[in-house]
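Researcher: I'd like a candidate sequence for this fold, 120 residues long. If you have to choose between options at a position, lean toward the conservative one.
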């Protein structure tokens, strides 16, 4: 590796990070609440403030690694399946269609990501 000063530093490997820019136009148009940093505010199972809308990946602004995004996607998939199953059960049992959606202000999530549930 050669620095701007001309100093050389021998290395066999180099890791670097590229900046990520939040792309939340769709979330804004849907009415999702955002954090002060511009990420989508979410709660249990990556549920947003809009019933039926879930998120995963770099838009949450947690650790931005593929493995973390995969875990968030798994939580979101579980939340979506849970929501749809409960909605279907309630519709069949009562004839009423209601979207079951986890709250954004969830204490378990606040312990996991305390900076993500503050005022947007």
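Model: Candidate sequence:
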């Amino acid at each position: 590796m050669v620095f701007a000063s001309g100093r050389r530093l021998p290395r066999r490997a180099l890791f670097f990070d590229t900046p990520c820019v939040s792309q939340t136009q769709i979330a804004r148009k849907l009415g999702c609440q955002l954090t002060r940093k511009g990420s989508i505010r979410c709660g249990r199972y990556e549920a947003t403030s809009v019933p039926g809308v879930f998120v995963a990946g770099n838009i949450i602004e947690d650790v931005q690694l593929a493995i973390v995004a995969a875990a968030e996607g798994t939580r979101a998939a579980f939340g979506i399946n849970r929501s749809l199953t409960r909605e279907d059960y309630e519709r069949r049992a009562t004839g009423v269609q209601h979207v079951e959606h986890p709250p954004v202000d969830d204490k378990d999530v606040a312990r996991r990501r305390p900076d993500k549930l503050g005022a947007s």
